[in-house]
């Protein structure tokens, strides 16, 4: 069967075979069904995460990995409808929706008909990864851009892992994956909270402009207002309706960009501090360091560190 936008899981393909109970347990799950269900699964691992692409017929599975603090499980619906239960809460997960749950208790995943999903488990979340925990309230619809990026990333790593029998222990790749999911969570929350009024429409336009232009060091609140065709006071009202400010959002995008570049520099040594600041949109290394420090302090507060 073919799932649009993410590839093929065809049981006639020699690489797509039904897993047995032992293989399912190696992926961190066991079946609660009297008769073992039909399941096709592909996975990849790193020191930071486990990624899986799973298709199953009607089934009820429970996680077998030990509960851990500072860890999170992420389920993204692909096709069909599934249900995720943790503690005393149960959530239906439609296609293109993301659900984040903590890993401090077992999770039960079930479906009454065939269901395809992506599954990621992140371990040892650090202060900079706390954005993932902002989606704990329930399923969120992913914006198309982030749905496509997550689908492409998951398909790539699980296919490469099984073709070459490798682990993904590249620190830069691990950081990039975390950044992708953090950005997806933040943007899914933004999209969900948007109202169909002028303030919400302007906010979405502003975020899209910031995403596209944050590396331009000339971008500031005044220029953002000019690009949107609104006054600076009105721009502040637009962002206040979403409990943030335009300056904060510009800085947040630059910090995420700088963080990825710094990780790349540590790995390859290609970028100086001045180059990192310039490429991520900061006017000086001092401003970049100050922004990175604020970002770390904010995330430490959100994690209760």
Structure commentary:
This protein is of the alpha+beta class and 305 residues long. The protein has two domains: 2-161, Jelly Rolls, CATH 2.60.120; 194-302, Homeodomain-like (Arc Repressor Mutant, subunit A), CATH 1.10.10. The protein is 43% helix and 22% strand. A six-stranded antiparallel β-sheet has the order 4-5-12-7-10-13, with helices on one face. A five-stranded antiparallel β-sheet has the order 3-6-11-8-9. The chain is globular and about 65 Å long. Residues 1-14 have low confidence and may be disordered.
Keywords:
22% strand, globular, alpha+beta, five-stranded antiparallel beta sheet, 13 strands, disordered N terminus, six-stranded antiparallel beta sheet, Arc Repressor Mutant, subunit A, 2 domains, Jelly Rolls, 305 residues
List the helices and strands and how they pair.
Blueprint: E1 2-3, E2 7-8, H1 21-26, E3 29-31, E4 39-45, E5 49-56, E6 59-63, E7 72-79, E8 82-86, E9 89-93, E10 97-102, E11 107-111, E12 115-122, E13 140-141, H2 144-164, H3 171-193, H4 198-213, H5 221-228, H6 232-240, H7 246-268, H8 273-280, H9 285-302
Antiparallel strand pairs: 1-2, 3-6, 4-5, 5-12, 6-11, 7-10, 7-12, 8-9, 8-11, 10-13
Helix pairs in contact: 2-3, 3-7, 4-5, 4-6, 4-7, 7-8, 7-9
């Amino acid at each position: 069967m073919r799932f649009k936008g993410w590839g093929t899981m065809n049981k006639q393909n020699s690489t797509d075979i039904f897993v047995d109970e032992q293989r399912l347990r190696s992926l961190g799950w066991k079946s609660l069904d009297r008769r073992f269900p039909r399941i096709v699964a592909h996975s990849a691992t790193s020191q930071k995460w486990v990624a899986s692409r799973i298709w199953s017929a009607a089934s009820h599975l429970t996680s077998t990995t030990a509960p851990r603090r500072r860890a999170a499980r992420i389920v993204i619906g692909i096709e069909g409808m599934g249900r995720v239960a943790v503690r005393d809460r149960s959530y239906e997960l439609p296609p293109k929706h993301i659900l984040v749950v903590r890993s401090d208790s077992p999770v039960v995943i079930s479906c009454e008909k065939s269901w395809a999903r992506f599954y990621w488990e992140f371990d040892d979340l650090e202060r900079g990864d706390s954005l993932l925990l902002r989606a704990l309230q329930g399923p969120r619809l992913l914006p198309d851009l982030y749905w496509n990026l997550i689908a492409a990333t998951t398909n790539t790593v699980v296919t490469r892992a099984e073709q070459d029998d490798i682990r993904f222990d590249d620190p830069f790749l691990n950081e990039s994956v975390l950044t992708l999911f953090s950005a997806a969570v933040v943007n899914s929350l933004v999209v969900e909270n948007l109202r169909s009024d002028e303030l919400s429409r302007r906010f979405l336009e502003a975020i899209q402009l910031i995403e596209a232009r944050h590396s331009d060091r000339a971008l500031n609140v005044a220029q953002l207002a000019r690009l949107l065709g609104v006054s600076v006071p009105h721009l502040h009202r637009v962002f206040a309706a979403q409990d943030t400010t335009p300056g904060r959002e510009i800085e947040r995008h630059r910090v995420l960009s700088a963080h990825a570049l710094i990780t790349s520099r540590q790995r390859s040594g290609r970028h100086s501090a001045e180059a990192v600041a310039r490429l991520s949109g900061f006017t000086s290394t001092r401003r970049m360091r100050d922004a990175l420090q604020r970002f770390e302090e904010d995330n430490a507060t959100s994690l209760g560190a």
